Amino acid sequence: MIAEPEGDVGHYVATLIFPSPGIWSWSISAFGPEQSLPPLAVLSLTEYGEALFVAKGCAMCHVHRESGVTPVATINRGPDLSRRSFDAAYLREWLRDPSAVDSDAVMPALGLSDDEINALIAFLNG
Ligand code: HEC
Predict the structure, then answer these.
(1) Minimum CA distance residue for ligand 1 atom 40
(2) I want to staple 80 with a disulfide (CB 3.0 to 4.6 A). Which of 14, 44, 63, 73 is the partner?
């Protein structure tokens, strides 16, 4: 893979596509011999969704047996999502903006990207 110059002088960009999740070793060759870089952890979609479940604050309001985090919310706490699965199209709309699905919804819209929503769907329905 060859990186292409982009933007400022000295800035190069390459797109790496890893064939499968796991821990990958990688290295670069620039101005001399090949240099090893720290290993990269490539997550599956489900693992990414699990990480987002904690990072985006879902675990503050919802129990999920996989997350290992105990919710702290004392008000506006949501249902236990451990053994639930949902219609994917419904979940996509709900996660984008709960109040657009149900005007009485208490759950906040969390400004999730499409990629984040896809990962959360894989985790919740997995
Ligand atoms: C501030 C607390 C709070 C946070 C943060 C939160 N939720 Fe909720 N969630 C709720 C509440 C409360 C409900 C119950 C419905 C309602 O009143 O909004 C709910 C409902 C749900 C439902 C069930 C929808 C249904 O139709 O039964 C899902 C799925 C869900 N949340 C997923 C998530 C995910 C994924 C995240 C993180 C991206 C998240 N929630 C973040 C409070 C929260």
Answers:
(1) 58
(2) 63
pTM assigned to the model: 0.85
Residues 60-92: tens digit of each pLDDT: 999 998 887 888 878 888 999 998 999 999 999
* Residue ranges, the chain, pLDDT below 50: none
| Rounded Cα–Cα distance for residues 124 and 83 (Å) | 9
21 lines ligand 1 (CB under 6 A): no
Q: From ligand 1's centre to the CA of 97, what distance in Å?
A: 10
